[in-house]
Amino acid sequence: MRARNCLRFYVSVAFECDNMEDAFETCHELSDIGRFDADLHQLCLRNFTRIMDVKILLHSLEFLLRFDAASTVRSLESVPIQVDPREIVKYLEPYRDEHIIYLQRMRPLQIAELDTKLAILYIEEISRLLLNEGNDNIQKIKQYRTSLRHLFFESHYMEKVKVAEKMKGSPAFAVETIILKGKDSASEECLETLLNEYREFDAAELYCFYMNAHNKRLFRILLKSYLKIVATQPEFKSRIVNMLQSMNEPGDELEIIAEFPDDWPLQTLSSFASKALSAYDYRLHCDKLRTAALSVALRHLTSELREGASTKVSIDDHTRCAVCGNLIGNEEVAVYPHSNTLAHRSCTNCSHLCPEMDTAG
């Protein structure tokens, strides 16, 4: 006990003296011989934010994760130094849950290697959980599937070939395979497959949500399908209303409203109708601005043309060409509009720049 207290005291003093290397190295040695405890672990994590050396941090990760992976990964959020996340994930391989959590946090970085690894981890975890579909597992499978589908749409650099290969041949990932194939094309065929062959309405809505900006027809296809279904399954009405509220800029709001049966209560469409009216007003305002800008530009152009057409020049026996220097004589002449400089028309074929102002004629 006395020896343990002495070591803890030594570690505390080392931290207080900013001797991070000795403090963490001592803790590492204690961990290797089974004398590292929760108090020392917390002491290390409290000082994690003071580490200014990447090597010390990475060297410490191994034994800190081994003791308590969850709290150690949380502590990584507050590390002040820049550490390549690809180095950190090497230490997270044995801890799948924490590995996934860390990769999820790294998604905004859009690193191909990390996004690909996260997708593969989702696939592996879903496959593992499907072997024992208890109540807890069903919820987790659904959570992982949803995250995987969002990742497909949101990652710009994920290695699709590797991910597709991981799902290849597994009926459990048929829907995800369709989404992955269709994400680059905003394919109507992909949407119809999700709706008609797999009856995967959540996946269809997600596909529409992300792809509608690339193909405005997708929303109409989905809506028409839902309106057919709702005739026999009234519970779909709430799904339709929720979908209308979640969609942004469907593009043809008035036509969409016209699709609804006359017996639908107006209050169910009020939110979408309000959004549609705002979008319509905005587009109308943009059209007016565009028209006004074109009108001003046209007036300026007309004014310039009139000024050019009314230009008067005086030619006498002594007038010379500004390009070749010879007398104008009886030859056809050209006038550079911004300088009223005269030149033989044949001379302007050699140069389109005014010899006096160096601007185009």
Automatic annotation (TrEMBL):
Can you name this protein? Vacuolar sorting protein 39/Transforming growth factor beta receptor-associated zinc finger domain-containing protein
What range(s) does the Vacuolar sorting protein 39/Transforming growth factor beta receptor-associated zinc finger domain occupy?
Answer: 310-349
GO cellular component, as recorded: cytoplasm; membrane
Gene Ontology biological-process annotations: autophagy; endosomal vesicle fusion
